[in-house]
Design goal:
- There is one protein chain.
- The protein is mostly helical.
- It has one domain (18-210): Hypothetical protein af1432 (Orthogonal Bundle).
- Helix content is 66%, strand content 0%.
């Protein structure tokens, strides 16, 4: 059998094969262990985030047509690749050290690709941890990616609330973490505020949370 060595194929095969490692990363694990949420891995989450991104972006483009939608969709596809190295961390337990570890893994994963490709992917990845310089240039894209990610948390937690007898806790805690952020994003993004996080939804959430004041208090590392 003859030998064959094609560097770009070697590089792509390694990247694509390693990316499937997201299926081994269990999300919301502290809730899953207590039976408060269904089991979902990061690969499933990535697909759902990308599909949700398509839905939210299609709506927003009719309000703000100059958005770089491709950049945002790239971000939804690649934003959690670093969890292959670190595992998932729930919202309250996120740290700068973990963010750095995830980004280091991400950069190693794509290190064999041409420089221009790496730079474009890194830009998309950085929408989730944007510097002031990046915010000045990609303000709309950063807000839209944030809306997709945060609203995805809510959609997941809402299903647990509706279908799991123990799921009330996860929804209450998620909404406490996300509600004010989503109100801000609804003001910044007219389509998101008109269709997804409307004033009516905001009022329903606020009235719901009032019922659980002092209950389901989330603690770091619990």
């Amino acid at each position: 059998m003859g030998e064959l060595n094609i560097p770009i194929l070697d590089s792509l095969e390694k990247i694509l094969s390693k990316s499937i490692g997201m299926q081994e990363v269990i999300r919301w694990e502290k809730y899953v262990k207590k039976g408060e949420a269904r089991k979902e891995n990061s690969l499933q989450h990535t697909y759902k985030a990308s599909l949700l991104g398509c839905i939210i972006l299609d709506n927003e483009l009719s309000y703000i047509p100059d958005i770089d939608a491709y950049l945002i969709l790239k971000a939804t596809v690649i934003h959690d690749l670093g969890e292959i190295a670190t595992g998932d961390t729930v919202y309250i337990d996120k740290t700068e050290e973990k963010d750095k570890e995830e980004r280091d893994f991400f950069q190693r994963l794509f290190s064999t690709l041409p420089k221009s490709i790496k730079q474009d992917l890194d830009l998309a990845y950085c929408l989730q941890h944007a510097t002031d310089e990046l915010k000045a240039k990609y303000y709309k894209e950063i807000n839209l990616f944030e809306a997709i990610e945060r609203f995805g948390y809510v959609v997941f937690a809402y299903r647990e609330f509706k279908e799991n007898p123990k799921g009330k806790k996860i929804f209450v805690q998620t909404m406490r973490n996300q509600h004010e952020h989503l109100i801000r994003l609804a003001h910044e993004l007219p389509g998101f505020g008109a269709v997804f996080y409307t004033p009516e939804v905001q009022q329903d959430v606020e009235e719901f949370l009032k019922q659980y004041e002092g209950q389901f208090i989330e603690q770091k590392g619990e």
